[in-house]
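Possible regression after last week's pipeline update?

I re-ran a chain I had predicted before the update to compare outputs. Posting the input and the new output here so someone can diff against the archived version. Not blocking, just want to make sure nothing changed silently.
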Amino acid sequence: MELPKAIRERGEIICVLTSFVYEMASGRESLVISFGFLAVVLLVGAGMFTVFQIQPDTPGGGVSDVESYPVGPEKPIPLNSSNVVDYTTTYEERLFYNDLVASHNHRLYDDENVITNCTSLSNGSTDEFHVQLECRGGVTDSSQLTESEEFTYSVTYRITNNTTQQTEFQNYPFGTDRTFNSERS
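New output (post-update):
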């Protein structure tokens, strides 16, 4: 029994539409698989990036060993009223830095910084110079500012071409046995 021509044409149209829908579905399937693969690759990449970024930079959980200044600054020759202040300020800031670092067992966390700042209050000049300094400093903790420590003290030095001698000391937070390695006997 042969189908009428109109039904045959409709059947062919339905067959064509069915195959078109099937091809569309298989194309979508491959598109979905492609997007799924891309999503997995991106997730694995993001995971790897995160793992390698979180590792601490220093062994010991973000704690660094800190070295002291082994020697004081070089004394300028000849001494004059302007360079003696720079020399004495640098000398005292290095000693203060060494004492601050030693008070923390030469170890600081990554978010801690040592700050030393001395300013000259007076300077008298004859054959020797007397330099009075007001100093501030401490160890700041950028992650916990309330845990930061700060000290203020004053010190006076007598400076000649041959000596650098501390003559007065007020409110210093550490011991008074202060020398560089090169000055120890």
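Follow-up from reviewer: compared with the archived run. The first strand starts at residue 63 and ends at 65. Marking as no regression found.
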